[in-house]
Amino acid sequence: MVRVRAQRRLENSLRRYGFCHIAGVDEAGRGCLAGPVIAAAVILDPAKHIPGLRDSKLTTISERERLYKIIISSAVAWSVATGTPEEIDKINIQQASLEAMKSSVIKLVPLPDMVLVDAFRIPGLLIAQQGVVRGDQKCSVIAAASIVAKVTRDREMLKHHIADPRYGYDKHKGYATAEHLKAVSRFGYSSLHRKSFRPRSLLDVLNKDS
């Protein structure tokens, strides 16, 4: 795994054009079988550099926890928003993710004057924005948002594991691992599962056990 550090080049370039509060936005849990999708928005303080900041997928659990604490304590502003399993089933994961990302941005105080989004733009957001391909690896503000979203969601899934340990959320956080699929084949879907998600891997397990 190449542990690329996120850069501040794009943010610095935008500041030279007069943008002041530049927010990064990202989500976690998009591809999960169970649990919410969590979006985070972060405005970093340009005077407070965070060493080692990178995409959450390129960090260990301990690194993410350490960086999360630094981000929320030093950021100009940060917020999170949730798309529940019920919302995902109702409007689909793409729309639920976009709605959560939009909500996370408009909850920021102060509001940003520019928003950088991982991969694509957020429809209906009345703030200047730019989609950045692989932004969570390239831009520090998006990387920071990816860490806040990931840590927030992981902590929530641990709470769900304590409430219902049958599915092993403490290990896979709701992703469709072999262990998770076996638990679903044994216990069925819970209220935390996305009923509209029927991956082929799950169908294979269910057919095998039937």
Written description of the protein model:
This protein has helices at residues 9-16, 61-74, 85-91, 93-106, 135-138, 140-163, 169-172, 178-187, 200-209, and strands spanning 22-28, 37-43, 77-83, 114-118, 129-132. It is α/β, with parallel strands linked by helices. A five-stranded mixed sheet has the order 3-2-1-4-5. The radius of gyration is 18 Å and the shape is globular.
Task: Briefly say what this structure is.
The chain has 210 residues and is an alpha/beta fold.
Summarize the helices and strands and which ones pair or pack.
Elements (H helix, E strand, L loop, with lengths): L8 H8 L5 E7 L8 E7 L17 H14 L2 E7 L1 H7 L1 H14 L7 E5 L10 E4 L2 H4 L1 H24 L5 H4 L5 H10 L12 H10 L1
Parallel strand pairs: 1-4, 4-5
Antiparallel strand pairs: 1-2, 2-3
Major beta sheet, specifics? 5 strands, mixed
Topology order in helix (H) and strand (E) letters: HEEHEHHEEHHHHH
End-to-end CA span: 39 Å
Shape: globular
Strand content: 5-15%
Mean pLDDT level: 92
What is the helix tally? 9
Number of DSSP strands? 5
Instruction: Give the structural class.
Output: alpha/beta
Strand order of the largest sheet: 3-2-1-4-5
Which regions contain 5 or more consecutive residues with pLDDT less than 50?
none
- Helix share bin: 40-55%
